Amino acid sequence: MRREAIVDELLRKHALDYLGSGNYIVDPDIFLDQEDVVFLDVRTREESESIAIQLKHHSNVSSMNIPVHELPERIDELPIDKAIGIFCPANVRSTLAYVYLFSKGYTDVRIIVGGYIALTEALKPGKILNAVRRSAG
């Protein structure tokens, strides 16, 4: 199928019933509690180097930084068979990455909402302690 046809189909799927269901977004708390998922940070390398999001104590989450502008060249690094949560502070680049991944056949993709504030809330000490205990399990 031509890329334009894939994007056309993607846009058609995003009618009110889909948007109203919120199936394209996920809160950080909910995402970090899922099993065997990929946290895709699409911020620039410089942003990632300034504020790294590694999630080392979340054994259920693989954390990757692939800046949105590098995604076409690095898409093969992403597993197509796992849920992917896409993060950037304002959800602009997350949305671009979301559409791009869907156009490439990735179907279990969500935008992690809330930016730094929501992610920081999801990574407070008590929640990290729970993740550490779950990992030690």
Automatic annotation (TrEMBL):
It comes from the Bacteria. Coiled coil: none annotated. Residues 33-128 form the Rhodanese domain. CDD domains: RHOD. This is Rhodanese domain protein. It comes from Pelobacter propionicus (strain DSM 2379 / NBRC 103807 / OttBd1).
